[in-house]
Specification:
The structure is a single chain. The protein has 300 residues and is α+β, with helices and mostly antiparallel strands. The chain is built from ten helices and twelve strands. Helices cover 35% and strands 29% of the residues. Helix 1 runs parallel beside helix 2, helix 5 crosses helix 8 and helix 9 packs across helix 10. It binds cytidine-5'-monophosphate. The site of cytidine-5'-monophosphate has 11 residues, from strand 2 and helix 5.
Length: 300
Amino acid sequence: MTSDTSVTVRVPAKVNVQLAVGGARPDGFHDLANVFLAVGLYDEVTVSEADAFELTCTGPGSDQVPLDRTNLAARAAYALAARHGLGEPTIRIHIAKDIPVAGGMAGGSADAAGALVACDALWGTNASREELLDICAELGSDVPFSLVGGAALGTGRGEKLELLDVGGEFWWVFAAADGGLSTPAVYREFDRLSPDAPDPVAAPALLEALRTGDVEALAATVTNDLQPAALSLFPSLKDTLDAGTSAGALAALVSGSGPTTAFLAADEASARRVAAGLAEAGVCRTARVAPSPAPGATLL
Ligand code: C5P
């Protein structure tokens, strides 16, 4: 339930179990076949009435989060207010961060989806799902998925979503790196390394693995076309990937544009062993265990 003066929304991180990337389009974006899976690491976005617009952020990496109107969460609030003729939003947005910042897990996109749902509830704008998804797509390629959660195939630049069935629970370990990677820089490196990228297509075997909840089959089919580019810009990630595999992960990959690395484990106990192995090897800042799929933006 919501009160009149303050609304909190919980939003999940994502991992891309397949990220197939085509060549650069005339608008600079890349066509994708992007299989998103929401995972149980969450930010919480609280929006409350205030005298003027204000944005605050706490949690790991929050010192790197912009607190002005360039923040995607702020842009989400302004976009909804503009559409409904509400003028300058006089609200405080507070982001309690738990999703790694600049890590390739769509934390900024999650905060935008969270702020949008929270403002819609606070202001009683009652935007339709379509309108919310429309605003999300304007804000960024990953924002619509943060709203819907679960699993989905994103095409276009990632914003056109087709929901996918997931037939079981998958356990992951996410290793946060020291430092960040800029998504545009990773795409530019991709263009340099893969000048003739073919049109991206979702792999039928991977969609089937998700549908049946078959972890071995999913491990055999996960791919990330941005991984070579991320490794080229951040070579030490290779040591992290190797350490996770040695610790028993069924699959190891860079999450999105990185530098967070993702490890698929056979079950929760195995995920905890992989996390312990990564921590012991000293190849990451933190190693977090999370299940999937997770729900999308949810009012608390
Ligand atoms: O859409 P979003 O703002 O999240 O994208 C961030 C950057 O990532 C873009 O400016 C672009 O450089 C790159 N990108 C891309 N193709 C996509 C998605 C993102 O080139 N499909």
